[in-house]
# Entry
Amino acid sequence: MTKPANPIIAAIDTTDLSTAMRWSQQLNGQVGMLKLGLAFYLAHGAAGVRQVTEKPVFLDLKLHDIPNTVAGGVTAVLSLGAAMLTLHAGGGTAMIAAARNAAETAGGARPKLLAVTVLTSLSAEALAETGVADNPSQQVLRLAKLALKSGADGLVCSPLEVAMLRAEIGPEPLLVVPGIRPAGAAVGDQARTLTPREAIGAGADWLVIGRPITGAADPAQAAAAIAADLEQG
Ligand SMILES: O=c1ccn([C@@H]2O[C@H](COP(=O)(O)O)[C@@H](O)[C@H]2O)c(=O)[nH]1
# Structure
């Protein structure tokens, strides 16, 4: 697929509607897409999504349940016209296939389904605590293959796995990548990070960036600076 002109997705992580609307106004012209996640959706639902922007958003709900329930969740949000929607690859083949089926049932445009592999907040040690003996890279690849063969359009992974995934799965599947930290930015709760330039250089399609943008004194300027750096890279 063609690479987006501006690959930055700004994560609008707040439960406050007016803050979300302000960030949306500030960032709409500076980034390629806005992402609304679980906290915002639980607080404001579909009506809140419509209030924040008229453009198609990335709906990061990370659905993870039995196939029938996830299919119902996909159906419930289809009318929002989201560009992308997340579900956990760990839900397995039947869950992902049910989500794809539900997305296609309505006909017409549907969100790209992105399977979250290993959360970028998990270090190798934290992943091991969950009972996974493999390292994050091995587990990402296992879940990536499962998700793509089950009907996912793309993957969410950390920037550290992007080059490996491109070598294994080729150029076509969408790679949407959080865990992005400009040089000097606070890492916070992220464990597997790279800079925007490094992630794009490795083969990412989209970069999900939250606090380094929304936590800045001037979010629009912070986003513009990252976009300018990417254009030079
Ligand atoms: O593995 C994942 C999946 C999703 N996310 C989401 O991306 C943003 C990152 O925000 P930052 O403030 O830049 O850390 C956030 O909305 C997460 O829910 C992720 O970080 N890792």
